[in-house]
What we know:
This protein is α/β, with parallel strands linked by helices. Helices cover 41% and strands 18% of the residues.
Amino acid sequence: MRRRGLLAGIAGGALWPLLSNAQQRDPARRIGVVQDYEPADPEGRVQIGAFRDELHRLGWDIPIEQRSGAVDAEQVRGVAAEIMALRPDAVLGAGGTIVAALQRASRTIPIVFVNVTDPVGGGLVASLAKPGGNTTGFTQFEFGISAKWLELLKELAPSLTQVAVIRDPAARSGGGQLGAIQVAASALRVEVRPIDPRVSEEIERGLLELSRDARVGLIVTTSRLARLHRELIIGLAARYRMPAIYPFRVFADGGGLMCYGPNSIEPYRRAAGYVDQILKGKKPGELPVQAPTKYELVVNLKTAKALGLAVPPTLLARADDIIE
């Protein structure tokens, strides 16, 4: 591959970095990427763009084989096998279901994950400090954040007596997220009503049934299903006038009432750093699994006004961003 930014007149003392960077552009090497966003989804494109940009910043200019849009288990297995058959030098996998399929396809090709909530409980790594095997990466959050969703929603809409929880029944983290919400619900005297849809029509049926009570709110947990159907979910919450909280900013930017969770782009940049180390010879099992460095609270005042909700000043003061 061509070197970018090669300057003429390099002094003898700079020769070693030049050789090192030249090795990083070996055209025989490649990286695989598997995520569940549809190829045209702007959020998924921004995430992969951040990964590519960071790789370039670190000096890598090698081909990336990307597969997107895998939803059901059979599709995920097929895509994982297809990527691993290409024998990439490392693979970036988004989400526990995808990473598990990648592991089944190969126990030797290095895997770096993002958007995994409980990699130890899900059996993806031996421990956070010493993952072992061929896999490491970056978690989304710990389960206590799920309780925070209900606390924030109740603070914004104190009249709530029930909360619908949309989760993916196939997601490895679904039970832990729901459990944390149920513990908080007991203290706040809120009834939890899980919705476990397998297709988009079941999301609408579940919310329609609960919308007959004006004191129902909505929590959307982290899952492939929620990411793929976020526009539908945001639209239904508006139609049925349900105060709702979401796990990522992209929901609030799209018209959702409120979000609380980690930055969804930063893990891709950090994953590029791990891929860089792996390509230089580091074993993934020696790289510790890392947690998010920051959580952000975003409130959409336009949506709050449409729902007739007055956002408490104390909540606004804690918000990292306010959409007006």
